[in-house]
Amino acid sequence: MENQQNRSTPDELDEETLFIVSQTFKALSEPTRIRILHLLAEQEYSVNQIAEKLSLLQSTVSHQLRFLKNLRLVKYRREGTTFYYSHDDEHVMNVLEQTIDHARHT
């Protein structure tokens, strides 16, 4: 007979889901990452283009992109020696844009 304590109801969140949700909000809690994701909502950009558009150091952009890539919030493609980044999760981008809209209307 299955242990009742190990079964989760639809209203409960399992540990993996909780971890992913908390890490996603952690990613969205840092202003530089928000700026990068907001920029990538428009189109893909190289690291250098992101750094230039946002007036950031290339090393800062690379560090933040690595964090976002590990969470699968951004993806990249390689063209020669250049990496072009774009967003990789429409759900998170929708949450981000809705939150930005909310902030602008308060």
TrEMBL record:
**Pfam families referenced in this protein's UniProt entry, alphabetically:** HTH_5
| InterPro entries noted in UniProt | ArsR-like_HTH (IPR011991), HTH_ArsR_DNA-bd_dom (IPR001845), Metal_resp_trans_reg (IPR051011), WH-like_DNA-bd_sf (IPR036388), WH_DNA-bd_sf (IPR036390)
Which N-terminal residues, if any, form the signal peptide? none
Q: Which gene encodes it?
A: czrA
The HTH arsR-type domain covers: 13-106
Q: Which of UniProt's keywords are assigned here?
A: DNA-binding, Transcription, Transcription regulation
Output this protein's name. Answer: HTH-type transcriptional repressor CzrA
Cite the source lineage: Bacteria, Bacillati, Bacillota, Bacilli, Bacillales
